[in-house]
User: What shape does this take?
Amino acid sequence: MSNNTEGQNAQQQSTTQNGFGNLNLSIVGLGVEYPPFLLAPADLDTLTKRHYPDSPAMKKVCTINNFTGIETRSAIGTVDHPMANMDRAPTITELCSIFLKDGVALAVTACRKALHEAHLHPSDITHVVSTTCTNSANPGYDHFVCKALGITQPVEKVLLHGIGCSGGLASLRTAANLALGHSFRGKKARVLVMALEISSLLVRSELDSVHELQETRIGVTLFSDCASACVLSNGIGGTGEEESVYDLLGWEHKMIPDTEHDLGFDVDPLGWKVILSPRVPKLAAEAVSPSYHSLISNLPSLPSEYRSPSDFDWALHPGGATILTGVEKAMSISPEHMRASYDTYMKHGNSSSATIFSVLDRLRCKDMDGLTPNSRGPKEMIVGCAFGPGIAVEMCMLKRNLHHVKREWDGGVQSGVGGEVTPPLTESEGTRSVSGSEGEVEVEDLQKVKEEGEKLDRKLKMVEPGVLEQNAKLGEQGKENENETLDSLEEAMDGVELD
Assistant: This one.
């Protein structure tokens, strides 16, 4: 069949008078890579005691931290990581160096896993769509991931920024439109989609703001580190080895008006600062139903047994416990409908844009199939949903291949995999329990941690002598605005249930 004929057929399949037709788009590989360390709630208590005096705001944050529903958060280091134990918060430049070292290594492994499951070689990739909100390097981190993967052929690359936790689904939507463009032209498309977030080392910057401004900043209790990837295929030029994990049937993108100040992630000399107003859970929950009904109306070929929200399984980005429970109530669904979202949230925390692919990867696992509502079994149709700054609502409809058997990646420890082959930065980091559940360290270990942090601090000061002056000015500005920015636990949690 000629390329022109294939393109015409693809165009006819992918367009209807009303909404989405047969797009012929499939996720043929998924890969998720979490770093090997896990932070327990007690670890935040340990860090606050080391570096900050007691204060009402700090006590409130630590109290909230024990009621998020998160058991552990994945991170590139333990609470003893030197970058978290300097006499100041690390600068954005210092954070970038860690991101491009340990973070890129995680992303490379996630991509290798996705390619392995898809039976594809890096040379098969035609497009790369990436996202992050925890790095602003130029060239972007995707450049270094592609280089490490050995992607040397010309590929169309897009790096999305400014979209936060909705970045995973926004990247999938962007990849879909790129793939459909190739389908129209009768050309093969194999789009590598990746998301990478390193949030754990922003802890000192966030705690500085809690201490200096006496703000109740709950972002520091939620976020974690992760890399995830998928491969999207348009079905043209396949070898026959590819097998769909999820078919992508359609998507929806909306902005909630006048909410840009409710959810954000602002650049700062000390990394990024989380903006999270107490209105977010309610706003997010209320926005799901309109997006859902709009998406359903644009899928005329959806089987008749799928109409009510409870007819589907759900892959919701676990932004927080109150977002999960809020969507449950708004859509009249149960925790079992969102079992993979809860599982990911409790075991790993909120890894921003990288989380949604982790949820989808977890949802297809056999143990998750045993936790369905009323033991009904897993559903083919999946609603994916995430929220990001703006506030943006990303939603998609996926069809799960219930017969697909996950192709496990047996590549072992790869050269440069973040955390797994990186030598411990301190003795205590290499020997401490991964769970870090004890919450306190011995005096000798604490002294070593502080000494290592001070050594790193002195070294970095030599490289960036102007940073301290800049940070001091920022601190003074924060103190001047203290009266305008004071917050309280009651205000922050007004109308919000901590499950």
Summary: Residues 233 and 451 are 51 Å apart (CA to CA). The first strand starts at residue 25 and ends at 33. Residues 1-8, 10-16, 413-446, 455-499 have pLDDT under 50 and may be disordered.
